[in-house]
Amino acid sequence: MTDDLPGAAGDLAKQHPDVWSAYSALGSAIADTGGLSAREKRLVKLALAIGAGSEGAVHSHARRALEENLPVDDLHQTAFLAIGPLGFPRAVASWTWITDVTDQS
């Protein structure tokens, strides 16, 4: 898994596998706390990345969503839903980050 991680996350995972292992275990535990489907969890994580304004996280969750066969239109809709609470500029920025990934597939 650590070989698949891009950038700083991959570097951290390789240099500090104990930290990465603990972080991954926490993520797994959190994912199992409720009744959301895998699709719902992925879209929520994408939305949170959009809200945080994290281009890298939006790219990551968009890539994972495509790997999980989520429709591109659902990813775009997630970006557009940001217009109300986050504003048009943030929604457009996040849409472009998603298209960075979806246009490559």
Automatic annotation (TrEMBL):
Pfam families according to UniProt: CMD
InterPro entries per record: AhpD-like, CMD-like
SUPFAM superfamilies cross-referenced by the UniProt entry: AhpD-like
Signal peptide residues on this chain, from the entry's feature table: none
Annotated Carboxymuconolactone decarboxylase-like domain residues: 17-99
Protein name: Alkylhydroperoxidase
